[in-house]
Specification:
By secondary structure, this protein is α/β, with parallel strands linked by helices. The protein is 39% helix and 19% strand. The strands form 3 sheets. The chain has a 7-stranded mixed β-sheet, with helices on both faces. It has a 4-stranded mixed β-sheet with strand order 3-2-1-4. A 3-stranded antiparallel β-sheet has the order 12-14-13. The protein is globular and about 65 Å long.
């Protein structure tokens, strides 16, 4: 992070700490809906949303306003260690974070410059922000640089991109984005929901695949993807940015906690991938096999970098759908001009 931006964030932190008082208590769940604090005292969970008491005792829903569970803190530390980042914060809702993160960190003096192909939740999040917005064509680095030049007088410039794009499966040009961010003193926020654990030698994401791991200031990952959770999202990166998010984000203060069963599942998956990358290699092998199959069917599919195989064709979606189903495949379809973009998601569990 540029020194000028770092100073701005530190000044914002001082102001926010004087006006906000989020609870940093770490607790563990006890039988009967009680919470056990670090000092050993037992308190009632008066922030639960399980009003009728139907929730099981190992899945007591709590509000972040009363702190964070010990197991959640341990998962956050594990994610920071795995990604080798300064800090990590887990929240309950991916959609809510995308809407809240820009609003919490930026104001009318700032600008967001974003790739036209970013994920839908991030696109919705941009709309709720007061900062100026500038969009550049998908992976058009020259246009991105032009917009950075036009934004030179802005207080904070944010480049917003996906790591692996959901529809096309291609990787952002992160080396070039890294160079421009350094040159024009911009922050980089990357949604790596489709790259985390599927991209890079060790599964650390699209930045590892591009050889610029860790350059982004914040990395957002939907935990419903590779971590197989029923809900939840984590954001990892610069410590001060995450502290500012804690102090200002309504999503953090009022979010429903990720369930204990999801936390356990996420820790098990993270531990398994950290110890053995066999699953990642198997997933890539299956993706390449699917790519070869599509080529034999006459579709020009490019070699996948993660778990999404895609191709563009002049044929209609209806025509392609029938042919793919004859070969045991289903896909997602979207329009690219007059052409059709076809995307297929891959799992290490299936043969294609």
């Amino acid at each position: 992070m540029n020194q000028d931006i770092s100073q701005i964030i530190e000044e914002e932190l001082v102001i926010s700490k004087a006006t906000s008082h989020p609870e940093d208590t770490v607790f563990s769940y006890e039988p009967g809906g009680k919470l056990k604090l670090k000092d050993g005292s037992i308190v009632a969970n008066t922030m639960t949303t399980d009003f009728l008491g139907f929730g099981s005792e190992n899945r007591i829903l709590g509000n972040y306003y009363c702190g964070q569970s010990q197991s959640l803190c341990q998962l956050q530390d594990s994610l920071s260690d795995f990604l080798q980042t300064e800090d990590t914060l887990i929240l309950g809702s991916y959609e809510a974070l995308c809407a809240d993160i820009m609003e919490s960190l930026l104001n009318t003096e700032d600008v967001i410059i974003y790739d036209s192909a970013i994920s839908l939740p991030m696109r919705r999040g941009i709309k709720s922000c007061q900062a100026d917005k500038m969009r550049f064509p998908h992976s058009d680095i020259d246009k991105l640089e032009q917009q950075l030049k036009l934004s030179v007088m802005k207080r904070i410039k944010v480049i917003l991109t996906d790591g692996i794009f959901f529809d096309s499966g291609d990787c952002a040009l992160l080396k070039e984005i890294h160079q421009l961010a350094s040159q024009y003193n911009a922050l980089v926020i990357m949604d790596d929901s489709n790259g985390f654990l599927t991209c890079g030698k060790n599964g650390r994401g699209a930045d590892e695949h591009c050889g610029v791991r860790g350059f982004q200031d914040l990395k957002i990952v939907n935990m419903q993807n590779s971590l197989c959770c029923s809900s939840g999202v984590f954001v990892s990166g610069n410590h001060n940015l995450l502290q500012l998010l804690k102090l200002r984000s309504r999503c953090y203060r009022h979010s429903i906690s990720v369930s204990e069963s999801d936390i356990t599942r996420a820790r098990e998956i993270l531990k398994a991938v950290s110890e053995n990358t066999e699953r990642i290699e198997l997933m890539h092998a299956k993706a390449n096999a699917l790519c070869d199959k599509l080529r034999k069917l006459g579709y020009q599919s490019q070699k996948p970098v993660a778990g999404i195989v895609s191709f563009v064709t002049e044929s209609s979606a209806e025509k392609i759908k029938g042919e793919l189903r004859k070969n045991g495949l289903v896909a997602q379809y979207s329009k690219v001009g007059r052409n059709t973009l076809v995307s297929l998601k891959v799992s290490a569990n299936y043969d294609y």
